[in-house]
């Protein structure tokens, strides 16, 4: 009897073709949920729990390091000693499904057992926190802003807060860094009906509410990550002028209105 084997290369091509077809379907569905944001940012900024049945839409600079630290440990069912704190931000090191892996998106978001949540922050303090953490600490975003300002990436000239704000307000939403992208678009508010929108200003209370909804033991898994803390709330008067505040308000007006933040700096 002669056995016929499908060549390995043909098996691989078949698998790759199937994966490509499924991802093409996902891309078409994703267009119904993204608004002025790239599809790969939709994948990067969303976390889907298979174990706890929740969807988390991430907006950086709203306590996301603490949130993901808690959720990762709860998903794994054990305390984890994170050797490098930044690992929690790398998708390859966390246990969540990507949004492209959940199947039909319309059916997924309509599931009655799915708890959808996100966290947001006052645009004034969020943008200042971005400046203090990413620009003054010379992260890679610092070099991006220098290039936008027409400077050499290795220039030692300090970027002032006003220069940073002027650079940000010129950026289209799609090309904004996620740390200061308009939160309404960063969390896909126009097309996702969230069950809960937490506020950074009430962070612990709101996060505890989320953990209770998900039956996550907060005493076991909750601890605060302060690695990116900037105390921006206490430095508002130092960095903001009336002119800067007006520019920020105009750029982020949809965030102020949609999430209920006041135009006043106080």
Description:
By secondary structure, this protein is an alpha/beta fold. The protein has a single domain, classed as Rossmann fold. Helix content is 44%, strand content 7%. It has 13 helices and 4 strands. Strands 1-2-3-4 form a 4-stranded mixed beta sheet. A hairpin with a 4-residue loop joins strand 1 and strand 2. The longest helix has 23 residues. It is globular. The N and C termini lie far apart (84 Å). The mean pLDDT is 90.
Averaging pLDDT over every residue, what do you get? 90
Instruction: Report the uncertain regions.
Output: none
- Write down the secondary-structure element order: HHEEHHEHHHHEHHHHH
Question: What would the CATH topology be?
Answer: Rossmann fold
Overall spatial form: globular
User: What is the count of helical runs?
Assistant: 13
Strand elements, count:
4
Radius of gyration: 21 Å
CATH architect. name: 3-Layer(aba) Sandwich
CATH C-level name: Alpha Beta
Number of domains: 1
Observed structural traits:
Rossmann fold, 4-stranded mixed beta sheet, 266 residues, 44% helix, alpha/beta, 7% strand
Task: Please summarize what this structure is.
This protein has helices spanning 8-30, 39-44, 64-76, 105-109, 123-135, 140-148, 161-169, 183-186, 203-213, 218-221, 236-239, 242-251, 253-259, and strands at residues 46-49, 54-57, 115-120, 196-199.
Please give the structural blueprint.
Blueprint: H1 8-30, H2 39-44, E1 46-49, E2 54-57, H3 64-76, H4 105-109, E3 115-120, H5 123-135, H6 140-148, H7 161-169, H8 183-186, E4 196-199, H9 203-213, H10 218-221, H11 236-239, H12 242-251, H13 253-259
Parallel strand pairs: 2-3, 3-4
Antiparallel strand pairs: 1-2
Helix pairs in contact: 7-12
């Amino acid at each position: 009897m002669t056995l016929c084997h499908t060549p390995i290369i043909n098996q691989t091509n078949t698998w790759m073709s199937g994966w490509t077809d499924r991802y093409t379907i996902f891309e078409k569905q994703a267009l119904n949920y993204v608004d002025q944001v790239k599809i790969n940012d939709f994948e990067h900024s969303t976390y889907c729990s298979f174990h706890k049945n929740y969807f988390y839409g991430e907006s950086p600079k709203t306590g996301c390091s603490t949130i993901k630290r808690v959720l990762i440990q709860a998903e794994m069912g054990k305390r984890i000693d994170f050797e490098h704190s930044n690992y929690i931000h790398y998708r390859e090191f966390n246990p969540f499904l990507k949004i492209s892996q959940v199947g039909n998106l319309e059916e997924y978001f309509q599931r009655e057992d799915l708890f959808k949540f996100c966290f947001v922050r006052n645009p004034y303090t969020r943008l200042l926190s971005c400046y203090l953490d990413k620009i003054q600490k010379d992260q890679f975003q610092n070099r991006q802003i220098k290039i936008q300002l027409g400077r050499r990436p290795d220039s030692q000239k300090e970027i002032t807060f006003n220069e940073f704000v002027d650079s940000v307000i010129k950026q289209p939403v799609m090309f904004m860094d996620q740390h200061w992208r308009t939160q309404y678009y960063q969390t896909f508010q126009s097309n996702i009906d969230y069950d809960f929108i937490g506020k950074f200003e009430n962070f612990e209370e709101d996060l505890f509410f989320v953990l209770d909804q998900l039956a996550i033991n907060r005493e076991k898994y909750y601890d605060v990550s302060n690695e990116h803390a900037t105390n921006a709330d206490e430095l508002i008067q130092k960095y903001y002028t009336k002119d800067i505040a007006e520019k920020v308000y105009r750029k982020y007006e949809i965030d102020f209105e949609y999430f209920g933040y006041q135009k006043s700096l106080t």
